[in-house]
Design goal:
Length: 99
């Protein structure tokens, strides 16, 4: 088995009946390495593409969801805020025309 490291997923597409997932790594920018920048700049590079049939992708999404729930129940992760709760917590003003 070959191990692959990725910082995150940058893109997911559905092409010709297959799911294509781009796995990326983050590298510090030259400015941040030399101390001349603010340290926030990182270059993103697509390293791998993972192809899966739609059924396998859906099963893997369920497996990840179960794992996230387990991590929340163990106190390792916090429960993500519901979209409606996040909207209510927003401090940006809301126009009365949209209420």
């Amino acid at each position: 088995m070959k191990d692959i490291f990725a910082n995150t997923i940058s893109r997911i597409d559905f092409i010709d009946g297959m799911i294509r997932i781009e796995l990326v790594t983050l590298s510090p920018s030259l400015d941040s390495i030399e101390g001349g920048g603010d340290g926030q700049g990182a270059s993103i590079k697509v390293r791998y593409a993972l192809y899966m049939p739609l059924g396998g992708f859906m099963r893997s999404a369920l497996t990840q969801e179960k794992f996230i729930q387990e991590m929340v129940s163990r106190g390792i992760l916090l429960t993500p805020a519901a979209p409606s709760q996040a909207a209510e917590d927003s401090t940006s003003p809301v126009s009365p025309d949209f209420i």
